Amino acid sequence: MLQRTSWPCKLRELHNHHMDSTVWNDFRFRDDDIVIGTYAKSGTTWTQQIVSQLIFGGAEGIDVPALSPWVDMRIMPRAEMLAALEAQPHRRFMKTHLPVDALVFSRQAKYVYIVRDGRDVAWSLHNHLFYGTDEFYRLINDTPGRVGPALDRPPADIRRFFLEWLEQDGYPLWSFWENIRTWWDIRHLPNVMLLHFADLKADPQGKIRELAAFLDIAVADDAWPRILEHCSFDYMKRNADKAAPLGGLLWEGGTGRFINKGTNGRWRDMLTEQDNCRYRQLAIEQLGPDCARWLESGGCA
């Protein structure tokens, strides 16, 4: 007897200082759309760069933020953003930071979800928020329609920031564990691919080829050297004006601050063994042992 696939359904709306999930209710999918999902600071921009290079065959100068918007970011002018996506003649790719149950899920679109160890996420997030300009905070907090408390600049003490983020489940953003858990639960679906930041760093060529196969993108042999070069951290750092949203203007230091280090493990000399034990305990409690192990180490999901 054939088993029927259980497809996700939208169960709720999610609103906060950054996001408004209702935009997906008005979005018109195409069958070949690509949706890149992450919690945040988990490799979103890198994955968008990779997908853009696969779609455009290693072309130079792809303005990724212009082509691939964060659809559920609430400060985006909705009508203009949706119209711009509707007008795109090429295969579309866009990003979301929503958990699955706050999305309108297409059975035909392809979904790529990338994760990163939560400690690395928190270190990257601290850099992102600590160096946000006054204009960044004005846009996030003062654009009409915000639901919930305002976003505050984090403390300079990064360990303190991490412990608040951990004990308050993603504070001052949204739930970290819930986001990962909802995507882990649909990893079996034929149009969903889970990636780990550490695996992508360890074997970029292998993982990018796997991604191309999943997306059904045939890449010419002579395009691969360009694609791999354009997906390297050094290339993205040099060309960050085509990778960072708004050219990086909302962060002190500009594009160099948004495309910061791209490294893992910066927390190792700053967190205590007790801190790490607490992180692992919560990961197992919230995700289960298999997902928690994958989140920390990568490998097969």
Please specify the SSE layout and strand pairing.
Elements (H helix, E strand, L loop, with lengths): L33 E4 L6 H12 L8 H4 L10 H10 L5 E4 L13 E6 L2 H13 L3 H9 L15 H10 L8 H9 L7 E5 H6 L1 H11 L9 H7 L2 H6 L16 H4 L14 H15 L1 H9 L4
Q: What is the SS-derived class?
A: alpha/beta
What is the name of the CATH class? Alpha Beta
State the total count of DSSP E strands. 4
Total of helices: 14
Order of neighbouring strands in the sheet with most strands? 2-1-3-4
The biggest sheet amounts to: 4 strands, parallel
Distance between the terminal alpha carbons, to the nearest Å? Answer: 27 Å
Low-confidence segments, given as residue ranges, are none
Percent of residues in helices? 40-55%
Reported CATH architecture: 3-Layer(aba) Sandwich
Tell me the CATH topology: Rossmann fold
Give, in order, the helices and strands.
Answer: EHHHEEHHHHEHHHHHHH
Count of structural domains: 1
Radius of gyration: 19 Å
Shape: globular
Portion of residues in beta strands equals: 5-15%
What is the CATH superfamily label? P-loop containing nucleotide triphosphate hydrolases
Please, what is the average pLDDT? 93
Report on the structure:
There is one protein chain. The longest helix is centred in the C-terminal third of the chain and has 15 residues, at 273-287. It is globular, with a radius of gyration of 19 Å. It has helices at 44-55, 64-67, 78-87, 118-130, 134-142, 158-167, 176-184, 197-202, 204-214, 224-230, 233-238, 255-258, 273-287, 289-297; strands at residues 34-37, 93-96, 110-115, 192-196. The protein is 42% helix and 6% strand. Strands 2-1-3-4 form a four-stranded parallel sheet, sandwiched between helices. The protein has 14 helices and four strands. Helix 4 (118-130) packs across helix 6 (158-167) and helix 13 crosses helix 14 (289-297). The protein has a single domain, classed as P-loop containing nucleotide triphosphate hydrolases (Rossmann fold). By secondary structure, the protein is of the alpha/beta class.
